[in-house]
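<instruction>
Derive structure tokens from the sequence
<entry> Chain with its tokenised backbone below:
===
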Amino acid sequence: MKNLNNLLYFIPFGLLAACGLGNDSAGNTTEIENAIAIRVFDDGAPAANVRYQVLPSWYVADTAETSAVKYIYQGTTDSDGWVHINGHKDGSYTINFTKGDSSIVLQYTLNNLNHEYTLDSAALEAAGTVMGLVDLPDSSDYAWVAVQGINTIVKTDSLGQFVIRKAPCGNLIVSAWDAEELSAIGETSASVTSNDTIDLGLIENPNKEIPENAIRFMPSDLISDWMRPLSFPTVLILRLDKHNFDFSKAEKDGSDIRLYDGKGNLIPFEIDGWDTTINSATLNIRVESAADTVRPWMLTWGDKKAPKLDSANVWKDLSDSLLASLNSVEILNFDEGTQYNALPEPLRNYWYIQPHDSATLSDAMKKDLLNGIVKADSSIFGKKVLHIEYSADGDKGQYIVFGTRIAAHQHDLSRLDSVEVWLKGNGDFEIILETIVESDTNYKTSYQGSVNKEWTRIVVRPSDFTNSDGKSYHGWDVTRNKITRFTIFAYNGTDLWIDNVRMYGINFDDLL
């Protein structure tokens, strides 16, 4: 990067100060002489002898410099915390104040319209940390990352990862440079706050050649908080829809899709739930190690000559607990003894019981629905179950509805494998998946059955749901991408016991 500042050109800019700063003023004046006046505080008191350094806002540190940096201005604040610089040169500048592990950075511009810059409330804050990832050119093993306007530059590792420690509080522009070509890769902005860590994500290389039918994305975009801490190998799930994928240019079965890691290696995956009628598909992607998730991935399609891929067993050798987490969702259990479902925030909602058309609940449940939660017997897992005592004559159109909202808005659940519910009691029931939001139509699909005095594991697969009746029920194919609610109807009986409702083949992200 020798003589980098002479090779590269930036357009000067001005940024407002951030991080605990007061209002500044930069006004017009008839004075020809430029001047700045800044007062610095530390822990609420004027800060004397605080070091300051001024550089052009476009400045980028040079890794090959052997002499000291030639600051435009430098010095320390006076006994009252003030810095006064008269006869200041025109241009856009960055001033960096530092004292121990505290700092603050400000930007200002002086020209024929603005001759003064004044700020009387600049506050020192604990320095932060800035981290991120540079989209390395194929020919480079690393890149340089600099904070413009201050003398800070770091080297990435071979994957493009970097960390800038003791980053000053304020608005920063972070630039990345190709170590081989000495050309710009890209830049991004960061607002550093006191003692915080800012993750800039990917600084993308706009010169990267991307095929016409392709998308690039960070694997980290597929990792939700509930999946952490990650264990490897694991499976990440990529959901495709009309917003991120052009189904019209891909094969009807998705057989032309290829997925590549940051080094151009093929990544094994399986297609789950491909459906061009609703422009929806899901890829289950096998990931062997954390290193495979660091650099951007690229998904391509549309190559009719692409060789056929061998089928991938992406779930091989994963633990039972990881499989359950990645490939199922517990909707309800009653062990907490509350009226909430078993989903995490923000999916956590009340469960409810409603009698319809003169159906009735027991007096105890009329008083408080929580009276229906009782200690579980030894034949069923869990500590507690729900016991609904009711009266409902199905021939008279009477029924009891038990249910909970499982999603805030409609999602495509085409890849659902099954719904599992444990039931016992007497009478008839319907397990229903439906929507009651985002539409004037209450779309729903139903499975009907009867219960007896023995606990029974009811497993309902998409093919088990009844077909459309042309009126109230729409069938699985119509309802599958509109589901927001799980419900059970009960009638022609007096008792319904419920526990452990779980959906297989989906995970929490399918409901968020």
About this structure: The helical segments are 4-7, 320-327, 363-367, 476-479. Residues 1-31 have pLDDT under 50 and may be disordered. The chain has four domains: 4-126, 128-203, 214-318, 326-510.
